[in-house]
Fold these 2 entries.
Entry 1:
Amino acid sequence: MIEKTQWHPVAQAHEVADKPVSVQLLEQALVLWRDADGRLQAFWDRCPHRGARLSMGRVENGHLECPYHGWQFASGGQCVKVPALPEFTPPARQCVKSFEVQQAYGLVWVRLESGDGLLPVFAAETDAHLRKVNCGPYDVAASAPRIIENFLDMSHFGFVHEGWLGSRDATAIAAYEVEATANGVLATGCKAVQPQSNLHSTQAAEVEYTYEVTAAYTAVLTKIPEEGTSKQGWREQIGLFICPLTPETSRVWFRLAVADFESSDEQLQSFQHTIFVQDQPVLESQLPKALPLDPRAEMHSAADRMSSAYRRFLKAQGITFGVC
Ligand code: FES
Ligand code: CO
């Protein structure tokens, strides 16, 4: 499964502190914890002794301790202590499976099998002019590809986000361009008139976005700055990072990279929350939950060319999880 060789977000980085944390990725239960040097560890959440959940244990002297008989595991997975046999040195094969893990964009990323792929790009991350705030997690009863597609879709704004991102009186979608990129798909020239496009909007404004799929379950919206405003040249972005839990359920984070330094984190998160809870019930109602890759399985309009390009990309990548 190609998805196993790709990096996926599994938790907010700050949630993994001095206690083990249970997470799920591609139907696999994992435990995250930090060793004595603060380095992240990701193990299979099953003790090799009698199968107890390691995430119910604790971190003891920089080792992960199983809740059942107290076996301790070091960074990398080696068992280093069997309390019932104090003089015993466990051999190298006495270990728990560990996975590659890293921290980025305020999130913990894991891949289940080795590969040569890099983390999905989020260009605004390195722009010091932009403030970064994460929103989520949201646990959503929808497949990751359905959630990505919803994010790429402007023609629902007038209905799902009426009075916020769109209105029923202005539903036409102007033609936009779609192109394949090295790691995904890019849509440019996406325009909409939005009654309340952000926290501070006082009147409707025309906005222009680009949408880019940067990995199978990651997408980035970039706001094209308006000419002649104080924010000219600032490319605000919203990243959508999804953890595929099961083929039909997902955990979702947004990362905002904005030029707004006045609002509180809570105010920024609250706006994003308002928008996403409008999307969530419709998303969870869609059937089939897996995204159909056969072009004949659902009907399409010219306004859906980005979604069609995304489906072709998933097919070309050989993605099987969350699609049908
Ligand atoms: Fe983990 Fe026995 S089940 S130490
Ligand atoms: Co929406």
Note: DSSP finds four helices and 17 strands in the chain.
Entry 2:
Amino acid sequence: MAETLSDAVARRRTFAIIAHPDAGKTTLTEKLLLFGGAIQLAGEVKAKKDRIQTRSDWMKIERERGISVVTSVMTFEYGDHVFNLLDTPGHEDFADDTYRTLTAVDAAVMVLDAARGIEPRTLKLFEVCRLRDIPIITFVNKLDRESRNPFEILDEIEEKLALDTAPITWPIGLGKNFSGTYHLKHNTVRRSDADVEPIAVNGPEADNVAGLLPEYQREAFIEEVNLAREACRPFDMESFREGHLTPVYFGSALRNFGVRDLIEAIGDWAPVPRAQEGDSRKVEATEEKMTSFVFKIQANMDPNHRDRIAFVRVCSGRLQRGMKAKLVRTGKQISLTAPQFFFARNRITADEAVAGDVVGIPNHGTLRIGDTLTEGEDILFRGVPNFAPEILRRVRLSDAMKAKKLREALQQMAEEGVVQLFSPEDGSPAIVGVVGALQLDVLKERLKMEYTLPVDFEISRFSICRWISSDTKGEVDKFIAAHRGDIARDLDDDPVYLAQHQFGLNYEAERWKDIRFTAVKDYQ
Ligand code: GDP
């Protein structure tokens, strides 16, 4: 018998990994995919990295990220569960992409380097998860190297993140003596991830636990485990789901320790696909009718096929191959002829994806970030954010004959979320905005490679950009009329006010009390 929708939804776990660069996100991803059977050999991901020829800095960054070049979502199965792992760029210049991706997950795995603890990017990404009430499972990585004491790491999480911790496993030894993970509650051991099933033991003092350590370390280890059991907080599901408590696992992604413990934790504890807030109502994942939204667009994933993939999070129902869906922004129907599932190296056409799944929809520019697709209902999912750019530039083109081509190219890049594009009301050339400087390198490189448009950037006289709105009718029009030279329109034709400096913005905000100047806009 075919699986019911609610059974299928209940098996889904959709999550992202958040980490400071170098903590081990890529290595952990490879191992998760390996145990999930999505790749044969963990080395394959790296092999792929080396084949990709690149030039500029941004591409190097992408290459170093390896797997992310290939795809932004990876689907795999382990045990009874279907996992959708969404990749997030590690570099902070691509922060807006990361924030949008986090709108599409139900849980996050926070990877810490056991010697470094909480690092700046970890903190930032954690704050985004907290804002969205995303429950977090912690994986303390690199225990095979010189590490801090586990208690010290737990303290740091509690202090820096104001997050309760509940250690679930405990490392048996550290550094070169690291020899496995001990489950504090189940009294089981995994000596490495080669142990598919954990081994039942008599307690920390057993030969196959403390006995794995050099004699002089055994007593201290047994004491530590007893202390962890008595003094640490027990795991509490409600507190975890509300984002107040994180279960903590220890391991080494590189050396195959603790990764199975982690996958099982995601399966057991990460929430099933959550209900999504629409503009008119909340949509439950188990509703029969399909709804979904686009949180990311990726172009040219495969240089041999110039395609553009919209990544869609299914919010409810089943997204079936060949179905027609309504694109709510335009009211038009589109055919979902070839939705794709992504694995580590390949993609397959998906006959059906259910709520919680993330699929790629190939298209030629019909879909934009933030778009909602439904089976007819006029509902919009909000919350895929658009951040005011921090760097504004004019694009200079040496060949004036190509101005039209440039406009089209910039429009496409803006729809993909590579840059934001603003058209000044006074008709002067377009301004591009980015959150991080590397995004400008991406833009330049892609305009050259894909559109043969060599460009340079000129400093614009503006440095700040704010969306403007008002509850008072006519107020925005009045403001625009009074500031025509400082107004531009974004991709949706919404007006922004461009200021030369913070002082200028404060001055206008003081004078125009009925106008809201906002630094974040939800895509609609
Ligand atoms: P990312 O930047 O977070 O994706 O980090 P990577 O997965 O690329 O790892 C950064 C470096 O740390 C690489 O040289 C990895 O081989 C290494 N690494 C990752 N996990 C471990 C681990 O568990 N133990 C040790 N010793 N090295 C690790």
Note: The chain is about 30% helix and 30% strand.
